[in-house]
Design a protein that fits this description.
Helices cover 31% and strands 20% of the residues. The chain has 357 residues and is α+β, with helices and mostly antiparallel strands.
């Protein structure tokens, strides 16, 4: 079982609940050591006396408060405990508030609270009361040498103490360029909002924390194992000089992105319900032939004169030979069309003369 890091009591009104505090979270970050690249020896840090330059052991280190430049008041752990025994031994509940009234931005670090000796009944009483009223307790607590504002929250059958940030620790957003809902550059259309809501609805599911894990850490550790297996334990991988950063653009087509996210092909926005108000373009009117039009006088499709065809063939002949080799069929086609056009124009001329006669 984990060792308790703090022992004291929860106090509200005349109720006194002995509790022990335990860390609620553990860090699984990548533990990388710093090495000297010349011989890959570990780099260490020393605690040394700035006057003599000699290393100092932990047994010779004490805490001090600098009240003037170079002048200190030495404070031992016992001094810190005696300064306010009540503050260092109690979780003093100041008020009970609705949980939704405390923004998530204020929550800092969680700790488990377990009942101390003889505290099971009063611990259970506070837990069940918090559940019934649907509130959290706001309290003061001193952990080590710092006083914290804290929230007592029921999670399952456990009372969790979550330290809170003080208001002066929360930075203002005045210096940030946050778009206003009324800003022209941040105007959201009804269609974009509807598609975004559909995407959120499609991705909604029950909270299952066990399905989430640190994939980056796992990938790095897999790379470590791969290098060990390949005996590349001291090979430094340098960045590829030919690698170019990905190009970014400020132009964002939200509709296309949302449609792609929803599994739709871009350009299908007309299928949405909110596009029903748009009138379709009028159909193109087909050309109606008049009675005066003579079938013999109707020009053949894509008709070319013999002269223009000869000019086209001549122009094609001047192109580079590599273009001719790449597209041999493209040069032969104009010549065939020119011959066909020449025959058509020759055959049409006698017919026109006969009609005129």
């Amino acid at each position: 079982m984990a060792r308790s890091m703090w022992k004291g009591a929860i106090s509200f009104g005349l109720v006194h609940i002995p509790v022990e505090m335990y860390p609620a979270v553990s860090s699984n970050s990548l533990d990388l050591s710093m090495l000297d690249r010349r011989d890959f020896a570990p780099i260490g840090f020393k605690r040394y006396n700035k006057n003599t330059g000699k290393e100092v052991s932990w047994d010779d280190i004490v805490k001090g408060y600098e009240y003037e430049s170079g002048e200190y008041v030495v404070l031992s752990d016992e001094d810190l405990r005696r300064a306010n025994p009540e503050a260092t031994q109690t979780i003093d509940i100041l008020a009970f508030v609705d949980a939704e009234d405390v923004p998530l931005l204020y929550y800092d670090h969680p700790y488990y609270l377990a009942p101390g000796k003889g505290g099971d009944k009063v611990y259970a009483l506070l837990r069940e009361t918090l559940k019934e009223v649907g509130k959290i307790g706001i309290a003061n607590v001193v952990i080590r040498v710092k006083q914290h504002l804290a929230a007592l929250v029921c999670i399952g059958d456990t009372i969790v103490l979550n330290t809170l940030r003080y208001p002066d620790e929360i930075r203002e957003t005045d210096d940030l360029k946050i778009p206003s809902p009324k800003a022209k550059a941040a105007t959201i259309s009804a269609k974009e909002l509807k598609m975004a809501m559909a995407l959120v609805e499609g991705m909604s599911e029950d909270w299952k924390p066990n399905q989430y894990h640190d994939t980056y850490r796992e990938d790095v550790l897999a790379l470590v194992q791969k290098k060990i297996k390949a005996k590349q334990t001291k090979t430094i991988t340098m960045p590829d000089p030919d690698e170019k950063p990905a190009k970014t653009t400020n132009v964002i087509d939200l509709v296309s992105l949302l449609q792609a996210s929803l599994g739709k092909k871009p350009g299908k926005a007309a299928a949405l319900d909110d596009d029903d108000d748009d009138e379709p373009p009028p159909p193109k009117r087909a050309h109606k032939p008049s009675e005066d039009d003579d079938e013999d006088d109707a020009p053949p499709p894509r008709r070319k004169t013999a002269a223009s065809s000869r000019e086209h063939v001549a122009a094609s002949a001047d192109k580079p030979k590599r273009a001719a080799a790449a597209k041999p069929a493209a040069k032969k086609a104009p010549a065939k069309k020119a011959v066909a056009a020449k025959k058509t124009s020759t055959a049409a001329a006698p017919a026109r003369r006969r009609k005129a006669a």
